[in-house]
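Can anyone check this?
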Amino acid sequence: MNAFHLFLLVLFVYLSFLILTGLYFNKRQVSQTDFWLAGKSAGVFSLGFSAAASWLTAGALLAVIGFFILLGTGSVWGFVAPNILALFIIGLFVKKIKALPAVTQPELLELRYGRFLRLPVALIITVVMILFAIADIKGFAMVLEIFYNVSPVYSALIVGLAVAAYVTLGGLSAVIATDMVQFICLALFILVMTVAVLSGAGSTSGLSLGQILAAPSPGWWNPLSIGLPMVLIFVLAIVPGWISEQDPWQRVWAARDEKSARNGMFLGSFFVALVFGGCALIALGLNRIYPEIAGAGFPMGMAKAEPALLTFIMEARFSDLSLALCALALASAAMSCTDTFAASGASCISRDIFQRHLYRSATPTQIRMINRASVLFIVFLATLGSFFITSIIDAIHIATFIASASYFFALLGGIFWKRATGPGAVASMWTGFIVQTGLVLADLFKTAPMAPPFLESIHPLFMGHGVIPAMGISGLVFVGVSLVTSPSEKERLDLFFGDESGENSKPRIFSSPLVPEAE
């Protein structure tokens, strides 16, 4: 048995456990609440593990280590800090989110503004989820290519089929349960790699642990080394999109109560910070082992910085079993994110598109069948897309920017601002989507290979494919059109802000006086 066959055997055992988990939850499902929202019984730790696992993809972790190697802690604002902040901020919004009478964000927007917004938002969220899944599949493909010289096609098929097998069985319950296991695998991997890399750095350089942890370059430990204006630009560009991402909202709705949801999001934010802290220590060790990578600078050194940890593992000559366990840990990270994005996007297709617009009298069994087919569809498109998008972080950022510019204001504005109207939300969404998509395409086509982004070279405010100007335009359109159009109907406002007596309306999860029954 060669090394790759041993990995496949280990992966098969692991997948068997995940599939059995899916079957277990599939047998326990007796209602749509069980399938869509895990029976609304998720506790603090299950939510915390799941929230963290769903945002820690293998490819992104490798990219983060690469950024730490080249740019130090000043690079946290491009991915790390927004991850931590977004989950924490969602925790602050739990009381409002938990009380909302919806299962998906498109359904929520229909209740707030009217049915004309549900379909386009469902489509946009599905596209965003596919882009996120692309980053996971691409990251795992890099792992298997370096470890076992496996074609990206086979790597994509492995993670895609694995996710489809257990997510289609158990719904969100299976996703949350397996996320707990997958996060523990990833956290143990980061811990072991931190020790191994720092030990290797000490052996290679002859330095003590204290000397290794000393900054390899001036300003490495300064998170504000890029300057406060750039920090604010990064935060404004990324955090809104992640706050409005559907999958953490679904976990809030799946919580057994408000306290569990809030503490679960806070715990998830803490877990993410711990893992990224380990990545920073790994980067310090790799800096000592491979000083030539940092010497190449950014962005030229990124081609070697991103797979640096994988290169270290290969050069350390781990046993075949140890190598298989490393690959499994990274595979679990890829799957924990892919399953989340596939499940979230599939819920939009099956509930917000199929059930709401195509087949109103669909039975729960039919809806679950469509949901399972949708998971396969999303994984297939993500697998296909992984061959066309070269940058892992860029795939994540593009998805985030589209979300930020298109429906951030309609979503957050709708639940916190009474004067927001349906016409304002529609105008804002389409304006932001069109402007942001156009800016992304222009930036991609006009940026020369290995050169700084074209739009960023015009002005720093245009960094992130111009998301801040796009968001600014979207926000102005949202406020302006809302103010010049008639306020929303009282019935809609009562669902979100309470009736005139000040009492909050009780949420109705699968029905509403404003949305005819579709079950």
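Reply from J.R.: I decoded it. The radius of gyration is 23 Å.
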